[in-house]
Description:
Layout: E1 20-24, H1 28-32, H2 39-56, E2 60-65, H3 67-71, H4 76-79, E3 88-90, H5 99-108, E4 112-117, H6 120-133, E5 137-141, H7 150-163, E6 166-168, H8 170-178, H9 187-197, H10 199-212
Parallel strand pairs: 1-2, 1-4, 2-3, 4-5, 5-6
Amino acid sequence: MTLTATPTPGAKLLTPSDHALILIDYQSQMSFATQSIDAIQLRNNAALISRAAKGFGVPTILTTVAEKSFSGPMYEEITSAFPGQALIDRTSMNTWEDANVIQQVNAIGRDRVVLGGLWTSVCIVGPALSALAQGYEVYVIADACGDVSVEAHNRAVDRMVQAGARPMTALQYLLELQRDWARTDTYELTTGIAKQYGGAYGLGITYAKTMFGAHEG
Protein backbone atom coordinates (compact mmCIF):
# COMPACT_ATOMS: atom_id res chain seq x y z
CA MET A 1 0.00 0.00 0.00
CA THR A 2 1.39 3.39 -1.02
CA LEU A 3 1.07 6.17 1.51
CA THR A 4 -0.18 9.60 0.48
CA ALA A 5 1.17 12.54 2.45
CA THR A 6 -1.05 15.50 3.33
CA PRO A 7 -0.06 18.95 4.68
CA THR A 8 -1.67 18.36 8.08
CA PRO A 9 -0.15 18.27 11.59
CA GLY A 10 0.28 15.06 13.54
CA ALA A 11 -2.25 14.32 16.24
CA LYS A 12 0.45 14.13 18.92
CA LEU A 13 1.46 17.78 18.45
CA LEU A 14 0.17 20.16 21.11
CA THR A 15 -2.15 23.05 20.35
CA PRO A 16 -3.19 25.85 22.72
CA SER A 17 -6.72 24.46 22.94
CA ASP A 18 -6.04 20.80 23.68
CA HIS A 19 -4.17 20.72 27.00
CA ALA A 20 -3.70 22.15 30.47
CA LEU A 21 -0.36 23.17 31.94
CA ILE A 22 0.41 22.31 35.56
CA LEU A 23 3.38 24.08 37.17
CA ILE A 24 4.44 22.36 40.37
CA ASP A 25 6.53 23.43 43.36
CA TYR A 26 8.85 25.99 41.80
CA GLN A 27 9.85 27.06 45.30
CA SER A 28 13.00 28.07 47.13
CA GLN A 29 13.38 25.02 49.35
CA MET A 30 13.33 22.60 46.41
CA SER A 31 15.55 24.88 44.37
CA PHE A 32 18.38 24.90 46.92
CA ALA A 33 19.05 21.19 46.38
CA THR A 34 18.43 21.13 42.62
CA GLN A 35 21.67 20.18 40.89
CA SER A 36 20.63 18.76 37.51
CA ILE A 37 20.13 22.17 35.90
CA ASP A 38 21.56 25.62 36.54
CA ALA A 39 19.20 27.76 38.62
CA ILE A 40 19.30 30.64 36.13
CA GLN A 41 18.41 28.35 33.22
CA LEU A 42 15.66 26.71 35.26
CA ARG A 43 14.08 30.05 36.17
CA ASN A 44 14.43 31.25 32.57
CA ASN A 45 12.71 28.16 31.19
CA ALA A 46 9.96 28.40 33.79
CA ALA A 47 9.38 32.01 32.73
CA LEU A 48 9.34 31.01 29.05
CA ILE A 49 6.66 28.35 29.41
CA SER A 50 4.61 30.53 31.75
CA ARG A 51 4.50 33.38 29.26
CA ALA A 52 3.84 31.02 26.38
CA ALA A 53 0.87 29.48 28.19
CA LYS A 54 -0.49 32.86 29.26
CA GLY A 55 -0.08 34.38 25.80
CA PHE A 56 -1.72 31.46 23.99
CA GLY A 57 -4.54 31.15 26.52
CA VAL A 58 -3.59 27.73 27.85
CA PRO A 59 -5.37 27.04 31.16
CA THR A 60 -2.67 26.77 33.80
CA ILE A 61 -2.71 25.40 37.33
CA LEU A 62 -0.13 26.79 39.77
CA THR A 63 0.49 24.63 42.80
CA THR A 64 2.88 24.70 45.75
CA VAL A 65 3.61 22.46 48.71
CA ALA A 66 3.80 23.81 52.28
CA GLU A 67 4.34 27.33 50.95
CA LYS A 68 4.01 29.18 54.25
CA SER A 69 5.50 26.65 56.63
CA PHE A 70 8.47 25.18 54.79
CA SER A 71 9.03 25.51 51.05
CA GLY A 72 8.66 29.23 50.37
CA PRO A 73 7.01 31.21 47.57
CA MET A 74 6.67 30.21 43.94
CA TYR A 75 9.09 31.82 41.48
CA GLU A 76 8.17 35.38 40.63
CA GLU A 77 8.95 34.55 37.00
CA ILE A 78 5.87 32.34 37.04
CA THR A 79 3.46 34.27 39.25
CA SER A 80 4.08 37.52 37.36
CA ALA A 81 2.85 35.84 34.19
CA PHE A 82 -0.46 35.05 35.92
CA PRO A 83 -1.18 38.14 38.03
CA GLY A 84 -3.86 37.58 40.61
CA GLN A 85 -4.14 33.84 40.03
CA ALA A 86 -4.49 31.87 43.24
CA LEU A 87 -1.95 29.18 44.01
CA ILE A 88 -3.16 25.79 45.19
CA ASP A 89 -1.09 24.84 48.24
CA ARG A 90 -0.87 21.16 49.13
CA THR A 91 0.42 18.77 51.75
CA SER A 92 0.80 15.84 49.34
CA MET A 93 4.04 15.34 47.41
CA ASN A 94 1.97 13.92 44.55
CA THR A 95 -0.04 16.77 43.05
CA TRP A 96 -2.51 14.30 41.56
CA GLU A 97 -3.55 13.21 45.06
CA ASP A 98 -4.72 16.70 45.99
CA ALA A 99 -8.49 17.11 45.66
CA ASN A 100 -8.30 20.86 44.94
CA VAL A 101 -5.88 20.33 42.05
CA ILE A 102 -8.03 17.55 40.61
CA GLN A 103 -11.09 19.77 40.88
CA GLN A 104 -9.30 22.28 38.66
CA VAL A 105 -8.17 19.58 36.22
CA ASN A 106 -11.77 18.40 35.88
CA ALA A 107 -13.07 21.96 35.53
CA ILE A 108 -10.64 22.58 32.65
CA GLY A 109 -11.76 19.33 31.07
CA ARG A 110 -8.83 18.56 28.77
CA ASP A 111 -7.38 15.08 28.42
CA ARG A 112 -3.81 16.24 27.86
CA VAL A 113 -1.68 17.65 30.65
CA VAL A 114 1.75 19.25 30.38
CA LEU A 115 3.92 19.24 33.50
CA GLY A 116 6.86 21.24 34.77
CA GLY A 117 8.30 21.56 38.26
CA LEU A 118 10.63 20.41 41.05
CA TRP A 119 11.75 17.74 41.71
CA THR A 120 11.45 15.58 38.62
CA SER A 121 11.66 12.31 40.55
CA VAL A 122 8.95 13.23 43.06
CA CYS A 123 6.78 16.20 42.12
CA ILE A 124 6.65 15.32 38.40
CA VAL A 125 6.80 11.51 38.42
CA GLY A 126 3.88 11.33 40.86
CA PRO A 127 1.30 13.25 38.81
CA ALA A 128 2.67 11.93 35.51
CA LEU A 129 2.22 8.27 36.43
CA SER A 130 -1.10 8.98 38.15
CA ALA A 131 -2.54 10.89 35.19
CA LEU A 132 -1.35 8.25 32.73
CA ALA A 133 -3.03 5.55 34.83
CA GLN A 134 -6.31 7.46 34.52
CA GLY A 135 -6.09 7.71 30.73
CA TYR A 136 -4.62 11.19 30.29
CA GLU A 137 -1.91 12.01 27.80
CA VAL A 138 1.08 13.46 29.62
CA TYR A 139 3.86 15.71 28.32
CA VAL A 140 6.81 16.73 30.50
CA ILE A 141 8.89 19.85 29.81
CA ALA A 142 12.16 18.23 30.80
CA ASP A 143 14.35 21.34 30.85
CA ALA A 144 11.82 23.15 33.02
CA CYS A 145 12.24 20.43 35.66
CA GLY A 146 15.14 19.72 37.99
CA ASP A 147 16.32 17.27 40.60
CA VAL A 148 18.96 16.68 43.24
CA SER A 149 21.30 15.15 40.64
CA VAL A 150 21.51 14.60 36.90
CA GLU A 151 21.06 10.88 37.56
CA ALA A 152 17.87 11.47 39.55
CA HIS A 153 16.43 13.70 36.81
CA ASN A 154 17.35 11.35 33.97
CA ARG A 155 16.03 8.23 35.69
CA ALA A 156 12.79 10.05 36.47
CA VAL A 157 12.37 11.05 32.82
CA ASP A 158 13.17 7.48 31.75
CA ARG A 159 10.55 6.12 34.11
CA MET A 160 7.88 8.49 32.81
CA VAL A 161 8.75 7.81 29.16
CA GLN A 162 8.55 4.05 29.80
CA ALA A 163 5.06 4.61 31.17
CA GLY A 164 4.01 6.63 28.11
CA ALA A 165 4.82 10.27 28.91
CA ARG A 166 6.27 12.45 26.15
CA PRO A 167 9.28 14.66 26.99
CA MET A 168 9.86 18.04 25.39
CA THR A 169 11.76 21.29 26.02
CA ALA A 170 10.64 24.77 26.97
CA LEU A 171 11.51 26.36 23.62
CA GLN A 172 9.90 23.45 21.82
CA TYR A 173 6.71 24.09 23.81
CA LEU A 174 6.60 27.73 22.72
CA LEU A 175 7.27 27.01 19.06
CA GLU A 176 4.85 24.09 18.97
CA LEU A 177 2.06 26.39 20.15
CA GLN A 178 2.89 28.84 17.33
CA ARG A 179 3.86 26.23 14.68
CA ASP A 180 3.19 28.49 11.69
CA TRP A 181 4.76 31.93 11.22
CA ALA A 182 1.74 32.88 9.11
CA ARG A 183 -0.30 32.99 12.34
CA THR A 184 0.20 36.72 12.60
CA ASP A 185 -1.99 37.20 15.68
CA THR A 186 0.60 35.44 17.86
CA TYR A 187 3.74 36.19 15.82
CA GLU A 188 4.92 39.12 17.93
CA LEU A 189 4.04 37.25 21.12
CA THR A 190 6.14 34.24 20.12
CA THR A 191 9.16 36.16 18.87
CA GLY A 192 8.97 38.50 21.86
CA ILE A 193 9.09 35.60 24.32
CA ALA A 194 11.88 33.99 22.29
CA LYS A 195 13.94 37.18 22.27
CA GLN A 196 13.66 37.53 26.03
CA TYR A 197 13.95 33.91 27.13
CA GLY A 198 15.07 31.91 24.08
CA GLY A 199 18.81 32.07 24.63
CA ALA A 200 20.95 32.05 21.48
CA TYR A 201 17.86 31.57 19.32
CA GLY A 202 16.41 34.76 20.78
CA LEU A 203 19.65 36.61 20.13
CA GLY A 204 19.47 35.46 16.53
CA ILE A 205 15.96 36.88 16.15
CA THR A 206 17.08 40.19 17.65
CA TYR A 207 20.10 40.36 15.34
CA ALA A 208 18.15 39.52 12.18
CA LYS A 209 15.39 42.01 12.93
CA THR A 210 17.83 44.78 13.88
CA MET A 211 20.35 44.33 11.09
CA PHE A 212 18.17 43.26 8.19
CA GLY A 213 14.57 43.90 9.20
CA ALA A 214 14.09 40.14 8.81
CA HIS A 215 10.76 38.47 9.52
CA GLU A 216 10.11 34.79 10.21
CA GLY A 217 8.04 33.22 7.45
